[in-house]
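User: Just a sanity check before I run the rest of the batch. Below are the structure tokens for the first item. I only need the designed sequence back.
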């Protein structure tokens, strides 16, 4: 079967941050797409790209009501080796397991690789599945920019996709009967090798843009300043304070403009990632942070603009599918996750489930993300069992 994760271990390593930076339509991710296409071809699967930059590898004839599995190949900046690729390589290896035992699916069967799941380049997570389901419009997606000012439309075009043809794809959606995504677990929620997902937190991303007055760090008296870094830092503290009772609020990205050591910034952009069990609680957390940020901006004579860049309500995976898979897999546990997934986007359109593979430390979105080879192998067996159960 070979160790497919080892085959791609050198692709997209980030020497500066550690781990991997494999961003949508950037060279490392394009190399992984080629690698996936070749691996699928080796197995006799027919690979086609859809209009939204997602890859589909069909085992047999494409058709409606298919059993579909897969995940993504892009990463966060400086991410781990497992988030995304584990679901893709496990899907290929599950096909190997099923083939070896002579299984032939009675339903159409595909492996899918979704584009820009992390939003690590263009800022909106699950962009490929959001486009496919119409959760984001083609126009809105095309104008998203990466840190170098390249738009998603430009990058997609360069990679061979027509941004004008992107958007809700009812044909592709009608192909998905059941979707199962295998993923590394991300929160120390599993003490056995494999589990099934029950739910995903409501979550979203907001940009807080503070504007003040750029000026000289030495020549400007403290009382004369309108420094947007002050309300930005108070907002970071407010985020921690607001995230109580299981809610999460994170600032992992803050960009001062122009960003000089001896320069009072003229503006600061701060990105907030907020999550909670329910929509209402998530909104409450964001409202509390926004109120604190507004007060802090006023105190410093700055202005503030808050933009919701993406949002997804709580997802409860199909209970019947979840329970039948837990049983077929020998009574494995069901657990919620705080991470977002393409499976969460698809859950509103198809019967959807997720399998989790144990992560002993729970660390994820970081180079230290880990799952043991034995647990990954157990994940492949569980996925093969699942797919066989669904495609028989
Ligand atoms: C993606 O992994 C996310 O949860 O943001
Ligand atoms: Mn992922
Ligand atoms: Mn992730």
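Assistant: Here's the designed sequence for the first item:
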């Amino acid at each position: 079967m070979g160790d497919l994760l080892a085959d791609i271990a050198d692709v997209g390593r980030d020497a500066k941050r550690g781990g991997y930076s494999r961003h949508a339509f950037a060279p490392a991710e394009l190399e992984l797409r080629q690698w996936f296409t070749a691996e699928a071809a080796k197995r006799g699967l027919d690979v086609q790209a859809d209009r939204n930059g997602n890859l589909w590898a069909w085992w047999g004839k494409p058709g409606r009501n298919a059993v579909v599995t897969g995940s993504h190949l892009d990463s966060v900046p400086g991410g781990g080796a497992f988030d995304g690729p584990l679901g893709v390589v496990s899907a290929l290896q599950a096909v190997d397991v099923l083939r070896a035992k002579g299984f032939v699916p009675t339903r159409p069967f595909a492996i899918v690789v979704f584009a820009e799941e992390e939003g690590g380049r263009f800022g909106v997570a699950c962009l490929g599945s959001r486009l496919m389901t119409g959760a984001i419009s083609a126009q809105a997606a095309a104008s998203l920019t990466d840190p170098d000012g390249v738009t998603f439309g430009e990058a997609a075009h360069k990679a061979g996709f027509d941004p004008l043809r992107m958007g809700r794809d009812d044909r592709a959606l009608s192909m998905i009967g059941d979707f199962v995504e295998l993923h590394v677990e991300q929160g120390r929620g599993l003490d056995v090798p494999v589990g099934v997902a029950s739910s995903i937190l409501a979550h979203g991303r907001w940009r807080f843009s503070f504007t003040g007055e750029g000026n000289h760090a030495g020549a400007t008296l403290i009382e004369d300043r309108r420094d947007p870094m002050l309300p930005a830092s108070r907002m970071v503290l407010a985020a921690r304070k607001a995230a109580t009772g299981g809610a999460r609020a994170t600032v992992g990205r803050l960009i001062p403009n122009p960003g000089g050591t001896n320069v009072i910034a003229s503006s600061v952009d701060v990105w907030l990632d907020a999550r909670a069990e329910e929509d209402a609680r998530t909104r409450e957390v964001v409202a509390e942070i926004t109120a604190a940020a507004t007060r802090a901006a006023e105190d410093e004579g700055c202005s503030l603009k808050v933009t919701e860049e993406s949002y997804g309500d709580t997802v409860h995976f199909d209970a019947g599918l979840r329970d039948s898979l837990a049983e077929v897999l020998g009574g494995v546990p069901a657990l919620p996750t705080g991470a977002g997934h393409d499976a969460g986007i698809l859950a509103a359109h198809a019967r959807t489930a997720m399998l989790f593979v144990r992560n002993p430390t729970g660390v994820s979105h970081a180079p230290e993300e880990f799952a043991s080879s034995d647990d990954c192998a157990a994940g492949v067996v569980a996925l093969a069992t699942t797919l066989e159960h669904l495609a028989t």
